């Protein structure tokens, strides 16, 4: 196959995925597109990590459409099987550019829309303008509220919209996802969730805020627990204004305790991951931090959050640094609330009344 052709270049890139060769894979990504380049680095790290856990993942070249001598699009097929989570075949189309006689990926061929008041950019496919407008409006209002309410000073935020969950899944990679968010990456969401976008963004922007306030050192049950808490507590009132009402969390507490009364301990929460079939990082994480906020207040919770910012930054996805973030989270909890075992016991007693 002729050197410098898109078919040859992308088949070399695909081979690097099968070979777990991060260096070769990254040589086929546009390093001058920093957000995308970082996301692709995380992509190959995730692929290698998942395969190490027993998943299978393969990428196949589907087709290339030439636009000019230096631009075009390539469609890739991503097949993935994860034990306990099934299988999927997903397709994603990327823009490609030719750099020094080599074809490299340069993200999905997005349009973009920027907020006039916040440092937010929404990337979307042609024909998805209305979904992009709603997403940008909701994101701008939530960020503005979080800045005032929680003293958050965010950097640039990017939100990528995809027409289908399959495209979100292919870009992570994951078997099946409607949305995705990790520190240092874009928020990704399918436009199939547009009707629920405000709720989704309160959750995902909480992740961004916690990532910034903790230097990305929060355990997954802090991330998912507090994001679940704000997802239910932050809403638009009848005038369209963003509001916070902690009493709204009580309904979620009742629902969470309806099926079972027990709450996992902090130690138990530290041993679960994103594949947990019970979703304990959401349910039990929410119950833990709802308890801490109800009994000690929101300000004390944020004291604990700020303790985590003192630790060094680890440039990895949350699932890849769980042992370290659990260790740091326990240290922060114990500094503010006392021994983790006592906190867990008191939390369980609180909900068994």
From TrEMBL:
Question: Which InterPro entries does this entry report, sorted A to Z?
Answer: Peptidase_M4/M1_CTD_sf
What is the protein's name according to its record?
Answer: Peptidase MA superfamily protein
Q: Which organism is it from?
A: Falsibacillus pallidus
């Amino acid at each position: 196959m002729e050197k410098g052709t898109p078919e040859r270049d992308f088949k070399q890139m695909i081979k690097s995925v099968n070979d777990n060769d991060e260096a070769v894979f990254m040589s086929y990504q546009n390093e001058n597109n920093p957000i995308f380049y970082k996301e692709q680095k995380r992509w190959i790290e995730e692929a290698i990590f998942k395969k190490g856990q027993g998943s299978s993942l393969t990428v196949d070249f589907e087709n290339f459409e030439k636009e000019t001598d230096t631009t075009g699009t390539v469609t890739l097929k991503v097949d993935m099987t994860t034990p306990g989570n099934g299988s999927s075949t997903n397709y994603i189309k990327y823009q490609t550019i030719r750099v020094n006689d080599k074809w490299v990926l340069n993200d999905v061929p997005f349009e973009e829309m920027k907020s006039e008041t916040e440092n937010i950019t929404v990337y979307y496919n042609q024909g998805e303008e209305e979904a992009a407008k709603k997403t940008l409006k909701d994101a701008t209002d939530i960020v503005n509220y979080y800045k005032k309410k929680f003293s958050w000073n965010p950097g640039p935020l990017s939100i990528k919209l995809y027409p289908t969950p399959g495209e979100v899944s292919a870009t992570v990679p994951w078997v099946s996802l409607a949305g995705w968010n990790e520190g240092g990456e874009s928020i990704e969401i399918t436009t199939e969730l547009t009707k629920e976008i405000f709720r989704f963004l309160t959750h995902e922007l909480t992740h961004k805020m916690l990532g910034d306030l903790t230097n990305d050192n929060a355990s997954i049950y802090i991330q998912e627990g507090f994001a679940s808490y704000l997802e239910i507590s932050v809403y638009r009132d009848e005038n369209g204004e963003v509001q916070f009402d902690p009493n709204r969390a009580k309904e979620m507490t009742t629902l969470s305790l309806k099926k079972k009364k027990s709450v996992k301990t902090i130690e138990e929460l530290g041993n679960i991951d994103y594949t947990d079939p019970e979703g304990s990082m959401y349910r039990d994480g929410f119950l833990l931090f709802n308890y801490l906020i109800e009994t000690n207040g929101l300000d004390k919770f944020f004291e604990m959050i700020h303790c985590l910012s003192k630790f060094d930054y680890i440039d990895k996805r949350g699932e890849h640094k769980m042992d370290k973030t659990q260790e740091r989270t326990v240290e922060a909890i114990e500094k503010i609330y006392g021994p983790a075992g006592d906190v867990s016991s008191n939390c369980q007693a609180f909900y068994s009344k």
